[in-house]
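Notes on consecutive records. When two proteins share a document, each keeps its own sequence and its own token line. Never mix them. Below: protein one.
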Amino acid sequence: EVQLVESGGGLVQPGGSLRLSCAASGFTFDDYALNWVRQAPGKGPEWVSAINWNGRSTYYADSVNGRFTISRDNAKNTMYLQMNSLKPEDTAVYYCTIQGYWGQGTQVTVAS
């Protein structure tokens, strides 16, 4: 059974940083690319970032490029999202996703 468990969300002031983690199990982790997707209140899902199987190729939405960094540790079956220079518009539930599976999400709130 595929399981994705996000953590690391919270309340942070504008300009602050957070590091999200996604712990995965139930599949061969280093066989797959992974994604972060977010959903703000009242809005549809927005793709944020992706990373290929070995971490050497990364991709970002324009809205986060230069502020967020995606990474993975295949030895730990874990993916990360380092978020810097956070803005109020980054407020959302952040999900890790793979092949149609989603975790339960972690809430990120950026407010002063």
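Protein two starts on the next line and is unrelated to protein one.
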Amino acid sequence: QVQLVESGGGLVQPGGSLRLSCAASGFPFSSYMMNWYRQAPGKGREWVALITNDGDSTNYLDSVKGRFTISRDNAKNTAYLQMNKLKPEDTAIYYCQSSLYWGQGTQVTVSS
């Protein structure tokens, strides 16, 4: 059974940090690129970041460059999204995606 399970979301003040995790199972995680997406209230789903299967290359949405860092640990079948200097406009449900699969999402709320 294929699963992608996100965790680490929550409520944080502007300027704060969160680290999201995405635990994968049921498919060859290390063979696939990993993406993070987000969906803000009333908006469409937006791509945020990607990392290649070997972790050697990453890419980011312009608005998160310099604040977010995507990483992965293939030995643990887990990907991460470190989010620093969070802004209210980062408020969204964050999803991990790999191959054909999506996680269920984790809520991130940035508010004072």
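For the record: The longest strand covers residues 18-25.
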